[in-house]
Write a structure and sequence with these properties.
The protein is of the alpha+beta class. The protein folds into two domains: 122 residues, Adenine-n6-DNA-methyltransferase TaqI, Chain A, domain 2, CATH 3.90.220; 217 residues, Adenine-n6-DNA-methyltransferase TaqI, Chain A, domain 2 (Alpha-Beta Complex), CATH 3.90.220.20. Helix content is 33%, strand content 22%. The chain has nine helices and 20 strands. The strands form seven sheets. A four-stranded antiparallel beta sheet has the order 2-8-5-6. A hairpin with a 7-residue loop joins strand 5 and strand 6. Helix 3 packs antiparallel against helix 9. The radius of gyration is 24 Å and the shape is elongated. It starts with a strand and ends in a 7-residue tail after the last helix. The relative contact order is 0.12.
């Protein structure tokens, strides 16, 4: 039988403010630099031995992160300096259940003052129960991480096939292929605008009215690696507004391009009801779709190449308002292989992409299950044995 006791937060864990480090120095090192919501490069030194738990202190209040290695927590975070004899992984999961927004002590910029937390009354179990709870919850994280590794491998495999066939030109039958004007016989150079029939961004309502059903509106920050999505900061729009959209509604296998901002040119794909069956994009992302379905995967991996990312970045800097418009995007030229090769590439990469998005949906379900289980374990509703 587990034993729970009421304590003050300050006797459960000691939080310390992170350390100053100009981001210009956070490069080319061995140790991750931890900001309030993510990792910002690396550094040659570390300040805290891992595992490191951080808590968003400035801006994104209460965002909890666990880094299983030595790291440099930035001054926008609080980190666990002393676990007071409690299980470090239990602390990580416990912190995720606290609504830190109510401790906001900032005016213009949300700020978390650790001194306001210390008198908070909480209930925690004995160390043995803490370890059991942490083991249960970490099982989900391990499954998710394993799926993430498989997704990464599958994406790299597909990208390697693209490079082998269309960059190094060692495609099937290349030994007997003649080249004309620098490209294989039967290939052609086309403008993107000639091969697509969908290029559109979306919009969001000026005023949000809460409805019984809301729909996720994806922004440029959601354009990440294939199968990667976070629901921690979702932007929701009313379903009635979504149904009235005549552009910017995501269809399965749409390519999404980050069209303006710091990472203009980043590319991903949404498909197979991931992350949701009904979703839209805002005005900062393009949705792209080829006339020929078999060209869609080829265009995806073409745009993911570093050379095209850099080209889109360069084109975005030639306007008064940084970003790439439809006209410039449509005028980008790409090499189109012969139909037989396109079909072969489509069939191979389709297998990879199906697996990637199946794993991504598995992760989404695992996260949902863990989120449901977390508060019940942390308040003792569910007894661990």
């Amino acid at each position: 039988m587990s034993r729970w006791r009421e304590v003050r937060f300050g006797s459960f864990v000691f939080l310390k403010r992170g350390y100053d480090l100009p981001l210009s120095q956070a490069e080319d090192g061995e140790f991750p630099v931890v900001a309030s919501t993510d990792l910002r490069g690396t550094h040659t030194e570390y300040k805290v031995e891992g595992p490191v738990i951080t808590l968003g202190r400035s801006g994104s209040i209460g965002h909890v992160q666990l880094i299983n290695e030595n790291a440099w927590p930035l001054n926008t975070t609080l980190y666990v300096k002393d676990n007071k004899g409690n299980n470090i992984y239990f602390i990580y999961y416990f912190l995720k259940t606290i609504d830190f927004e109510r401790f906001n002590s900032g005016a213009g910029v949300p700020t978390l003052n650790r001194n306001h937390l210390n008198s908070l009354k909480i209930k925690i179990p004995d160390l043995e129960t803490q370890e059991k709870i942490a083991d249960v919850l970490s099982t989900y994280d391990e499954l998710i991480e394993n799926n993430n590794r498989r997704i990464e491998i599958l994406e790299k495999m597909a990208e390697e096939i693209y490079k082998e066939w269309f960059v190094r030109m060692r495609f099937p039958g290349h030994e007997n292929t003649k080249f004309e004007k620098g490209i294989p016989e039967g290939w052609e150079v086309r403008k993107v605008g000639e091969i697509i029939d969908k290029l559109e961004s979306g919009k969001r309502p000026k005023n949000i009215c809460e409805e019984e059903k809301m729909v996720v509106s994806l922004g440029a920050g959601d354009v990440k690696s294939l199968g990667e999505y976070s629901n921690s900061d979702e932007y929701l729009i009313p379903y009635s507004f979504f149904k009235g959209l005549n552009r910017g509604v995501v269809e399965s296998k749409d390519i999404a391009v980050y069209k303006d901002g710091a990472y203009t040119g980043k590319v991903t794909m949404f498909r197979d009801d991931f992350p949701y069956k009904e979703i839209a994009v805002n005005e900062h992302a393009f949705l792209v779709r080829c006339k020929d379905e078999k060209l869609q995967n080829y265009l995806l991996f073409t745009l993911k190449q570093k050379s095209y990312y850099e080209l889109i970045q360069a084109l975005s800097m030639t306007s008064a308002q940084p970003g790439i418009n439809q006209s410039k995007f449509k005028n980008i030229k790409i090499e189109i292989p012969n139909k037989e090769l396109i079909n072969k590439f489509h069939d191979i990469t389709e297998l990879h992409l199906r697996k990637i998005f199946n794993l991504a949906k598995q992760n989404k379900n695992l996260i949902k299950q863990q989120d449901l289980l977390l508060p019940r374990l942390m308040n003792g509703t569910i007894e661990v044995k």
